[in-house]
Amino acid sequence: xxxxxGIDIGTSGTKTLAIDGRGKILxxxxxxxxxxxxxxxxxxxxxxxxxxxxxxxIRDVLSKAELKPAEVSGVGLSGQMHGSxxxxxxxxxxxxxxxWNDQRTAxxxxxxxxxxxxxxxxxxxxxxxxxxGFTAPKILWVRKHEPKNWDKVKHIxxxxxxxxxxxxxxxxxxxxxxxxxxxxxxxxxxxxxxxLRKLDLDASLMPDCFESPDVSATVSAIGSEASGLxxxxxxxxxxxxxxxxxxxxxxxxxxxxxxTMGTSGVVFAHTSEPGFDPLGRLQRGCHAxxxxxxxxxxxxxxxxxFQWLRNELGDIEVEAAKARHTxxxxxxxxxxxxxxxxxxxxxxxPYLTGERTPHFDPQARGGWIxxxxxxxxxxxxxxxxxxxxxxxxxxxxLIREMGVDxxxxxxxxxxxxxxxxxQIQADxxxxxxxxxxxxxxxxxxxxxxxxxxxxxxxxxxxxCDATIEVVETTKTEPAxxxxxxxxxxxxxxxxxxxxxxxREIAELVGG
Length: 511
Fold this sequence. Notes:
41% of the residues lie in helices and 21% in strands. A hairpin with a 3-residue loop joins β16 and β17. α1 (47-64) packs across α6, α10 crosses α17 and α12 crosses α13 (328-336). It is an alpha+beta fold. The mean pLDDT is 95. The chain folds into two domains: 3-249 and 439-468, Nucleotidyltransferase, domain 5 (2-Layer Sandwich), CATH 3.30.420.40; 297-437 and 471-502, ATPase, nucleotide binding domain (Nucleotidyltransferase, domain 5). It contains 19 helices and 24 strands. The protein has a seven-stranded mixed sheet.
C-alpha cells in the first residue's frame, strides 16, 4: 500500500493531506482565498485561486511528510459542488466560476422545469428538481446574460475537475459530483441526453464521467512541473465534497448518517437504490461508492452563519484569540455558554444566502426574532448556533419521514470540533451523536478513494472499515432536549410567517 494525497477545493480554502496505506495522516496543509459577491445573492470565485492553492499545498505536504514524488501512488480530488467553470477552446478560464451558493438563477430554474415537462418530469429524468445552486441553471444564465462569453465556451467543469484538468490536461468528472449539475441521469449514472437535448446544450461541453474510485487521468509533464508530483501519477475520479466527506466519515452503508456543519450544513444518508420523490424534497445523487446512491439535505449557511458572526461582530474575540493562541470560535462559544438552551425565546434564522432544504427559497433572509432588553451578546451568539442546528434538524426530519434508517448520527466539520456545539446538536436532534477518529472530511475521503483506485483496498467500504472508528459519543441532555422540542416548531413557523415578507425585501433591493 502506497501513500495517497487527498485534495479538497473548498469555498474558503483548499486542503491537501497525505495518508499511508493504513489511513494514517502523514501531513496536511491548507491555503485560504476570497470569494466575491458582485451583487446581493451572487457568489463567484476565480478558478486560478484554486490552482495556486492546490500547487502550494501539494508542495507543502510533500515537504512536511518528507515524501519523494515517486512515493505518491495516487491522488484523489474533492471540492465544492455545483460550481461552473467555463473554458474556451484553449482551456483558458472565460469568467469567474459561479458557486454553489449563488442565487441569481431563479428564472433559469423555472425555464428548466418547464422544458422538462414540470418538476416531476425533471425529477424522473435526473433525480432532482431545479435549484438555484445547481450547475445547469448557471449554464443557462451565462448563455442568456453573457452571450459574448457563451460564444467562447467549449468545456464546462466542476471546481475539482478544473484542478484535474490543470494537473493532467484531461477533461473528466465522476458520478457523485456530476449528480449536482442537474444534467446527470442519477438512476443510470450517465449524462442525460434527454435533458441536454431539451435545453439545447451540446453534450460535448460536458466531460467524460467515471466512478469515484476509478483512475480518470494521470499527472502530465506540465502538472508535474507545477505541483512536484511525478509524471504519470494516477488521479482517481474523486467525489464532490459531500459524498467525499461521507466516505471520510464512513457513511458507506445504510443506517449511518452524517451531519456536517461546515460553511454549509449537510445531512447525508447512504441508500442502496436511487429512489424517487416527486416533490424533490431532498437532493439525490450517486454516492462515491460504486453501485450506491445517497440522499442529502443542505443548509446553505450553517457554519457560514457562525463565520459571519465572527467576521462582523467578533473583533474582540479574534484579537483575544491571537493573544491566547486559540481559536476565536472557542471564545465565542465560551460566551454563548452563559445563555441557557433556547436563549429565552430568541431565534436566529440562518438564511444569509437564501435556503435550500427544505424551503428551496433563494429570497429567504436571515435575522434575529424575539429580541428583548433582557437579551445580551451571549444570547445572540448562542442563538446563531441553535438556529443553524434547527435548520439541520429540518433535513433530518425529512430523511426520517422518508423511512431512511438513522441508527447513528456522525458529526463532522467545525460543529464536531466544538464541545458546546456538539451538545446543542445532540439536544436539538433529539438523539445521541458521535465523532470518529478521522476529522479531515472530504480530503481524507478522496485519499481513501485513491487508495482503492490504486489497489490498496478492494472496495470503498473495506477502506473505511480499516481506517475509521467511533471515538466519542455525546449524549442528549433531557432538560435541554425538552426545551428544543418546544422551540423547534416555532422556528419552523417563523419562516412560514415571513416568507412573503422575504419576497418583498428581495424586490426592494432588486435581489
